[in-house]
Amino acid sequence: xxxxxxxxxMGNLRSxxxxxxxxxxxxxxxxxSDPAVIAAADKIVFPGQGAMRDCMRELLARDLRPAVLAAAxxxxxxxxxxxxxxxxxxxxxxxxxxxxxxxxxxxxxxxxERMVAADGSRLKVPHMGWNEVWQxxxxxxxxxxxxxxxxxxVHSYYMDTPDAALPVGRSDYxxxxxxxxxxxxxxxxxFHPEKSHxxxxxxxxxxxxxxxxxxxxx
Length: 218
Description:
Strand order of the largest sheet: 2-1-3-4-14-13-12-9
Radius of gyration: 16 Å
Oligomer: single chain
Structural class: alpha/beta
């Protein structure tokens, strides 16, 4: 099995690669910006870190947009952090930055007036550290992960979609927001599974075993 981690110069690439090597020692993990390598891979991981505008600029400068879109249309595909946000239409970051448009919706900044905890204290942005993730519908990548498991986050923007079928996981900070989305062969998370200890490694292990299909609910 060949798993390509898309390298467009933005993201915690080594940590993602090392985590995949740990959970899939039998697989070939390829960190690459070569469209031919991406096209030949069996599975795709699309990480991202930093400002959305910079990520989109680097993706376009390396002529990787067609390779990403082709992979997302045909292979088991895992988006991580900004790699998840890039799948939407638009981000408020950088003054309404156009993204890849695979999913309907926008990436919005945590609004300052809403960042108040139940005890009245102010919450910081970025949302950084561990938070519980609640599984809003079943998916093969949740296999063996307890509902409410804690995952690691670093972000100032969140995914907002009008498509009620897309979200598969949510967290609260302080309001509920979507942290995982899925459709067909694509699964994408706002949190960093490669930094999330046992739960994150289990999710990556599930991705390695996943054939890109989702069985209908019984």
